[in-house]
Structures are given as structure tokens and as C-alpha cells.
Amino acid sequence: MYSACLYCHGNLGRNEMLPNFEIGRRLAFDSKKGRLWVVCRHCARWNLSPLEQRWEAIEECERQFRRTRIRVSTANIGLVELRSGFTLIRIGNNFLFSGEWWIVVFPGTALATLILAVNLLGDWLRDALNPKLR
Ligand SMILES: [Zn+2]
Known about the structure:
Strand 4 (72-73) and strand 5 form a beta hairpin. The chain is built from 2 helices and 6 strands; from the N terminus they run βββαβββα. The longest helix has 28 residues, at 102-129. With 134 residues, the chain is α+β, with helices and mostly antiparallel strands.
């Protein structure tokens, strides 16, 4: 595993949070696509980690991310700062299994209810206004 940025050759730093992946103070991961990046502190570019070293580290990142209560999430990205300034960025929107199920369930229920209401209104309008059914 490299310890310097591929773009600016700056030091990527080390962490003690991931025993199998000790490079980087800020990591970004996408557990759905199996990608792990080390974010450079100097130029802020993302360095994709080698394929053979990332799987256990991605699982550990996901565990650390779920374990932390204080986090910031939007529809596609989540941010967690762990102790000693180690930062995790989660890419992707697997809310159903991340403990944030309400982000999917409540809008989905509202959308299903709206579609059912429009369908019932259309049936009622057809029955009320169709001259052949009178
Ligand atoms: Zn860099």
C-alpha cells in the first residue's frame, strides 16, 4: 500500500482505527461498489486503494460508521469524525440497512398512498362521468 498521494506526493498520514488499513487520516468508502479511497490532506484528491487490501477495511469502515451516533448524512453521502480527527466518508445510499430506515420508508409510504389516491380518484371520475354506465 502506498503512503504518499498519487497526485501531489504528500504524506497521507496514518490511523490507528483500522488495523488492516493503517494509511490515511480521512477515508472515503462505497461498500456497495467495493471502493475505498484515501483522501489527501494536502491536495484533497482521492487515491483509490489497491483491490486486494480494501475488502476488510471497507467492512471495518462500515462498522465504525454505523457504530457512531453523531454523523451527518444526506441522500448520497455520510460523514463521521471519529476520535483523534480520523474522518470517514460513506458514499452511496443504502439507508435500509444502515439503521436510517426512515429515510426510505416514510417517503415510500407517502408515494404509495398518493398513487393509490390518484388511482381511486380516476376510477371514481370514470364511473361518475361515463355516459354508457348510466
Ligand atoms: Zn495529494
